[in-house]
Amino acid sequence: MESHAFIVLLGFLLIVAFGAEQAFRWVRVPPVLVLMGCGLVVGPLFGLLPAADFLAVAPHFGAVAFLLILFEGGLDLDLDRVLKALGTALRLALVSFGGAALTVFPLALAGLGWPWRDALVLAIVLAPVSGAILIPLLGRLTLGASLRPVLILEAALADVLGVLALSLAGQIIDVGGIRTLVAFGTLLAAAASVLAGLAAGWLWPRAMRSLGEHSYVDVLTFGVALTLWGGVSLLGASGALAVFTFGFALANLDELKRFLGRSETLGPTEYDTAALHSFVSQMNFLMRAFFFVFIGVVVQVGALSRATLIFGAVASALFLFTRWAAIVRVRSRWKGDLPTVPLPLLVLLQPRGLVTAVLAIEAAHLGLPHGEAVLPIASVVILVTNVAMGVGLVVWGGGALGSAPTPAAGPAPESV
């Protein structure tokens, strides 16, 4: 494809992505389905974009998109609500992730006849709900003040759990034997990642204060987030968790100081997190749009065998049960407004998306016998779970859409 045609195509895809985001308020079709459909049209159907070239760059685009989503998710959170919601969100994330993984693992062993290593990797890839889809969506849903932070935190934690679990599985596969106990250092690395993000969020505004007034401050902060992700990852910890905590610390700097008993203030007049949030939201939209198109482009239609389609559909159906069990378990201890939200809607708010696609692409590089088959199965599950979520929004969403602030507008005082 010539460069001018490629530029026209990319511009058209951005227009489609904007239209999908706006039309979602009326037709309630998740934008990810529209973007994946565009990818299927320009990729496997008409061959306008080569899948092989996209597969080479998809992990890098996916990592940047993943970073932006988690960074924005951190910027969206309020410290007081996080402290109240963290326990519930962590329980929901662990039970939901664990239930989904424990469902897929025996299904892959018995249904596909895969060895345990391949089945374990597939279970991890399909287990996490998508923060890339849920975090922007939750900004548009009218939910209770105590429910939204629970679901945002759960979505962010699910992404991090997927990354950490695949890293742990990779160490088990590579090392093997008794030495796999060393892999559990990943849990300690998670704590180190949080500390690194908090330290960066604490120190960076002070560095900005010494620089004085400068243009492109938000771009510079994004560069710091990229450096933090890469540096923490090189040390063996979770760059995803560090960046999420970095955004959270920047958005709650004064609250963190009061929590720690510090009297100095560093408010929006010295560091404008609202402007940073607007910049990150727009960058997030750009990268998210391109990456979901990439997923459609790289889908190997020829690899979507009958067994793949059946497995993906069955796994997605079983996720409804595991999600229901997770919500019921957490709901029994909930003291806020969770019981007022229709249970079927909460069950269906479990789409798979960006992190599943990124992990599926990474799984292909682990050298497993069935590693190449993970992405086709993941594509089916992404499609089915998003269609199911769209149905849930139409049937049980009611007036939940359209009244909440959108992410691009920045966090409203009453939002999380």
Give the key terms.
globular; 16 helices; mainly alpha; 416 residues
Can you put this structure into words, describing what you see?
The chain is mostly helical and 416 residues long. The chain has helices spanning 3-27, 31-45, 51-75, 79-112, 116-126, 131-138, 147-175, 185-211, 217-234, 239-251, 253-259, 273-298, 306-331, 343-348, 354-363, 374-396. Helix 8 packs antiparallel against helix 9 and helix 13 packs across helix 16 (374-396). The protein is globular.
List the helices and strands and how they pair.
Layout: H1 3-27, H2 31-45, H3 51-75, H4 79-112, H5 116-126, H6 131-138, H7 147-175, H8 185-211, H9 217-234, H10 239-251, H11 253-259, H12 273-298, H13 306-331, H14 343-348, H15 354-363, H16 374-396
Largest sheet: none
Q: Give the integer mean of the pLDDT values.
A: 78
| Rg over C-alpha atoms, rounded to the nearest angstrom | 21 Å
Number of H- or I-type helical stretches: 16
Secondary-structure element series: HHHHHHHHHHHHHHHH
User: Considering DSSP H and I runs of 4 or more, what fraction of the residues is helical?
Assistant: over 70%
Class by SSE composition: mainly alpha
Oligomeric state, counting identical vs distinct chains: single chain
Strand content: under 5%
- How far is the first residue's CA from the last residue's CA? 44 Å
Q: What is the number of strand segments?
A: 0
Overall shape: globular
Uncertain residue ranges: 177-183, 266-270, 402-416
